[in-house]
Model the fold of this input.
Amino acid sequence: MTLTLHMHPLASFCHKVLIALYENGTPFEPHLLDLGNPDQKAAFLDIWPVGKMPILRDEARGETVPETSIIIEYLDRHYPGSVPLLPADEAQRLDARLWDRFFDLYVHAPMQAIVLRGRIVMTPRDPCGVANAEATLATAYGMIERRMAGRSWAAGEAFSIADCAAAPALFYSGIVAPFPPAHRNLAAYFERLLERSSFARVLKEARPYFGMFPYREKMPARFLEV
Ligand SMILES: N[C@@H](CCC(=O)N[C@@H](CS)C(=O)NCC(=O)O)C(=O)O
Done:
């Protein structure tokens, strides 16, 4: 096996890369990281000192690849499958990258800040504090609502890197900051993401770990059913 993904099945950024791998049936070995284990954490920090997962190791090419957007671009270039995750057209490619960044920075990051509330101390001048995170999410939800009017996927005509980013970000953000009922395009888009078999598989594999999610009591029953 040449590809190893160092990851945790509950971690939302790991979901983003797993979706990309499952979309194309790319063979890989999952390596479950327990960052609560001091030895594993130290070994991981040696590889990538910022300590963020997932990380892809490609033995065949001698490459270690961090950062989800870069991992997906790497897979698209070196291990392409039947579902290109970046459009061939340059303008559409840029658009897919824009919406990938959008979901990471303005949905995923504020969602993480809310989930970590109480576990980390926000300094008064921290621009990513929880109040700002909630405001950022509200703005992002409004933008997604307008963006998704009359379209199926976040960028271009086909499922792309932008949708890989959107699915786990919206999954967890919708639990900690529910979508406003009037945002029907956003809700319909999220349902399409849930129906995607790659994402359904990711959620099925995450389910045994949902008990570790700090806001599990807010998780809709349909996500907990087997
Ligand atoms: N920008 C990074 C973010 C990755 C990230 O935030 N990963 C989380 C898991 S979802 C993590 O490793 N958290 C561990 C920690 O912060 O200690 C990426 O796209 O890969």
Notes: The chain has nine helices and four strands. Residues 57 and 63 are 6 Å apart (CA to CA). Residues 11-13, 35, 51-53, 67-68, 104 surround glutathione (CB under 6 Å).
